[in-house]
Amino acid sequence: MTTLINPSVPHSEKKIFATLAVALVLWVAAYNLIQPLANWISFDLLQLAPDSQLGESVAFFLYDVPKILLLLSGMVFLISVVRTFFSPERTRALLGGKREGVGNIFAAMLGIVTPFCSCSAVPLFIGFVEAGIPLGVTFSFLIAAPTINEVAIILLFGLFGWKVAGLYVASGLAVAIVAGFIIGRLKMERYVADFVWKVHRKVNVIEEKLTWSDRIERAWQSVKEIVGKVWLYVVVGIAVGAGIHGYVPEDALASILGAQAWWSVPLAVLIGIPLYSNAAGIVPIIGTLIEKGASVGTALAFMMSVIGLSLPEAVILKRVLKMPLLVTFFVVIAIAIIFTGYLFNLIL
Question: What is the band of 203 on the pLDDT scale with cuts at 50, 70, 90?
Fold first, then answer.
C-alpha cells in the first residue's frame, strides 16, 4: 500500500503537524459556536431583553471576548512562525546597502513582520547605524515595527474585517515610508548622539538552523507569552467598548469624532500622543467608536498616535537622538498620521 506521508519528514514533526491539524479543527468549531452561545447566555439563560441597552452590551461582551482571544491566538501563532525566519542580524543584513527610496519601502515592509517594539528601539538603532544603513531608512523601519502592530491587525480584522485592517496596514506603511524619507532628506545625522558613531562592530549574520519543530515550539511560546500579557487588556477594552455600544448615543460620537468635524483628526492625534496603551486595550474601544459613528480616519489616526508616538518611546530614543532630531521625528510622524486620517475620511 502506498503511503501519502513523506518518509523524509521526521516522526516527531509528523506528530506535531497532526496535532496542529486537530487544533485547527477545534479552533474553527469553537469560533463558529461563539455567536449562538453568547446569545443563549444573554437572552435565554440571563433572560435579558434583546433590544435593551444591557442586553446589547452583555451579548456584545460575551461574543467579542472569546472571538478576539481566538483570533489573537491563531494569528499570533502564524505570525510567530513567519518571524522565526528573521533575526536582528538578518534584518540588518537585508537592509544593508539599500539606498533611500527603495530602502524606505523595503524597511517599512520588513518592519511589519519583525518582532521588535519601541522597547528595542535603542539597540536596533545602534545596530542599524553600525551596519551603515541610511538614517532615513532606519527610521522607516523603527516607525513601522511598533506602529503596524500585529495585535492591532488581528483585532481590527476580527471587529471589522479585512478592509479596515488593510487600511490600517496601508496607512502605517505610508506613514513609515514618507516620514523616513523626509527625515533622510533633512540630513540630520549630526543630531545622532556622539557615542553611537564611535561604536564600530562588524556585523556578522549567523544563520540559526531551526527545524519545523523548533519553529512551532517558538510560535507556541509566543502565543502563551503575548496572550498571557494582553488578555486582561482585551477584556477591559471590550468591556469599555460594550458599554459604549449599549449606552452611548450614536449622534454624540459622530458630532465629536465624525468626518464633518475638521478638527477631529488633529485633536485625536494630539490626545493620543501623551497616552500610552497597547493595541489590545485600545483597538476594541476604537472598534466600538467606529460602529457608533466615529469616522474611520479619525479613529485610526488616534490609534496610530497612541501606539506609535508614545512618551515612553520618546524617553527611550532620547538616549541616542539629540533633541532636534527627536522633535523632528515626532512632528513628521504626527503630520503624516493627520494627513492619513484626513485622506481616509475623504475616501470612506
Answer: very low
User: What does the alpha-carbon distance between residue 154 and residue 179 come to, in Å, rounded to a whole number?
Assistant: 25
Q: Using CA atoms, how far apart are residues 296 and 299, in angstroms rounded to an integer?
A: 5
Residue 336's pLDDT is what?
Answer: 84
DSSP H helices, 131-208, are: 135-147, 150-160, 162-185, 194-198
Q: Could you tell me the three cell numbers for 163?
A: 478592509
Distance (Å, rounded) from C-alpha 139 to C-alpha 86? 19
Q: What are phi and psi of 321, to 5 degrees?
A: -120, 135
Q: CB count, 10 Å around CB of 236?
A: 14
Q: Which three cell numbers stand for residue 237?
A: 477594552
* Coil vs helix vs strand at 242: helix
DSSP 299-323: HHHHHHHHHHS-HHHHHHHTTTB-H
The answer to whether the CB of 125 falls within 8 A of the CB of 138 is yes
CA distance 215 to 110: 19
CA gap 149, 114 in Å, rounded:
10
219 closest CA partner among 22, 72, 81: 81
